Amino acid sequence: MKGPSAMDRATRLDALIVGAGFAGLYMLHKLRGMGFAARVVEAASGVGGTWYWNRYPGARCDVESMFYCYQFDDELSQEWEWTERYPAQPEILRYANHVADRFDLWPDIRLNTRVISAVYDETAAEWQVETDTGENFLSSHCIMATGCLSAANRPDFPGLDEFAGRVFHTGHWPHESVDFDGRRVGVVGTGSSAVQAIPEIAKEAARLTVFQRTASYVVPAKNRPLDPGEQADIKARYPEIRAAARKTFGGFAVPTGRESALSVSEEECRQVLERAWNHGGIGLLNSYIDFGIDEAANERAQAFVRDKIRETVEDPETAEKLLPRHTIGCKRLSLGDAYYATYNLPNVELVPLGEDGIGRIVADGLTAAGKDYRLDDLVLATGFDAMTGALARIDIRGRNGLALRKAWAAGPRMYLGLMTNGFPNLFTVTGPGSPSVLSNMMPTIEHHVEWIAACLGFLRDNGIREIEPGLAAQDAWVAHGNEVASRTLRYTCSSWYLGANVPGKPRVFMPYIGGMPSYMKKCAAVAAAGYEGFELTPA
Ligand code: FAD
Ligand code: N01
């Protein structure tokens, strides 16, 4: 418990929401509408979360714009006009600001304020929340809308501090425009952020060197301007399209095959993949039902994409280095229309990293794979401490002073990805153990926000002071999540889903891979049964 001085002038709330991304914005709107005293605290100087921070060149969404948006308000759905099939970061950020304006959210959002600790006072049944501005809060409930991909992973490369040039991380890109004209730029990483940034940086840089640890599978987005007629047609059919999307595994409105890739000839499989390739989008891996669970089926898709790489990249040696060898879809599939062709440009070089990875960084460059590279700028496209990173960076203490970092030392443990035993009245939007990053995150966020809001309404209506998952229900959910994951191919490679990208992080498959429909059904059944599996303490 904090001493009286830190909390003396604390603001008292029903719900403190941490984060002003799409989760925090909707959570605030929802709770205020129910008459709760709620406030959002956000470290950034603006709203939008992911789309505030990730301003790197080429940043855009890979869920189609018409579906990467809120569904909770029909007027909002109808009035907002998207300009491209896949929206670019500035457009999504404008949308987030439009939502904050439209629902008059600003008075209850504290920007430039980072939560540094949240400590549960068992006697008062409230969270004592401290921020870095000195503005503190006492709140009956605390809702972590801190994001799954918001804590940048900045590897501790030896000598990085000695580098005399500019260093950027894609997830913390500067607001002012960055000019690479005439410069020697090094990009570390070849995940989704790098795949989008590399073709753009290559257009300006005198020399671009890409340092690749693992080659990525990249499929075309086929981005294009959105035709107004097409947009009007989708809006007219929103209810039916969205209802159909909710029945799919990831809440995506993409066609999904019903048969095994092995039930058709290799030729037929290739024709289907070719159509999906030309259509563009992550739906390619939905062409057959077993790409995610059967290695032999998966190999057909792998071979198809490798052939595309060989066809696109003119230098056979470079093409060979770009060929991914792991299961396709095991790591997040990347979308990009110009990625592989960028390696045909004379100013672009690919450097596969050997076992030793990035060697020593010096003032004017670095050593990798036994060679020295002279660089003016270094772009770290090295991803995120995903799913648990943002929470671990806050000192969260539950019952008996138990630290969340300690409770999760062997990996995150949550019931339904919503709450953790030992941390009453603390909710997480899209936490580990929920479908979150394996889905179209807008409907997933809305689902969690609505479940949490309904839960707070239930607690208020029934005079319940504390809610917390029972240990048995939490253990059973974690075991179920692990069991479902172990039946899929996602479990088989060193991905950030498993925490493998962050040295020392426990290897646990963090999102729930049982699919949206069964997950939503379970959440609804739990609530309908009076929050089955949770322990409720009356006031
Ligand atoms: P975020 O948008 O991450 O917001 C969390 C906020 O919490 C941040 O603003 C952060 O500053 C704040 N915060 C964290 N800790 C603290 C603290 N201690 N104190 C105060 N504030 C704090 N998803 C898709 O479904 N489709 C896509 O195509 C897609 N593309 C993506 C592209 C990129 C480059 C990235 C990084 C992610 C992408 N995602 C995509 C996932 C994306 O994160 C989600 O779609 C969504 O934006 C998450 O919203 P959120 O509100 O949950 O979290
Ligand atoms: O991060 P990543 P990201 N030395 O972790 C490499 C979403 N997103 O920012 O694969 C050398 O995928 C690492 O290598 P390896 C999406 O969910 C969506 O690109 O670990 N290299 C990898 O190549 C995505 O999955 C879009 O071997 C190191 C890269 O850095 C998630 O955000 C766009 C290293 C990191 O790739 C994260 O994407 C962008 C080291 N020490 C992001 N550490 C859309 O298009 C890491 N790497 C929607």
Describe this structure in words.
It is built from 17 helices and 20 strands. It has 539 residues and is of the alpha/beta class. A hairpin with a 4-residue loop joins strand 4 (115-121) and strand 5. The longest helix is centred in the last third of the chain and has 21 residues, at 441-461. Bound molecules: flavin-adenine dinucleotide and 3-acetylpyridine adenine dinucleotide (N01). 3-acetylpyridine adenine dinucleotide is lined by residues 61-62, 149, 155, 170, 188-194, 196, 213-214, 332, 335, 353, 357-358, 381-384, 437, 496, 501.
Helix content: 25-40%
Helix- and strand-based class? alpha/beta
Number of strands: 20
Q: Could you give the distance between the termini?
A: 20 Å
Q: Count of helical segments?
A: 17
Bound molecules: flavin-adenine dinucleotide, 3-acetylpyridine adenine dinucleotide
pLDDT average, as an integer?
96
What is the global morphology? globular
Radius of gyration: 23 Å
Portion in beta strands: 15-25%
**Which regions contain 5 or more consecutive residues with pLDDT less than 50?**
none
Largest beta-sheet characterization: 8 strands, mixed
Task: Looking at this protein, list some descriptive labels.
globular; binds 3-acetylpyridine adenine dinucleotide; five-stranded parallel sheet; binds flavin-adenine dinucleotide; eight-stranded mixed sheet
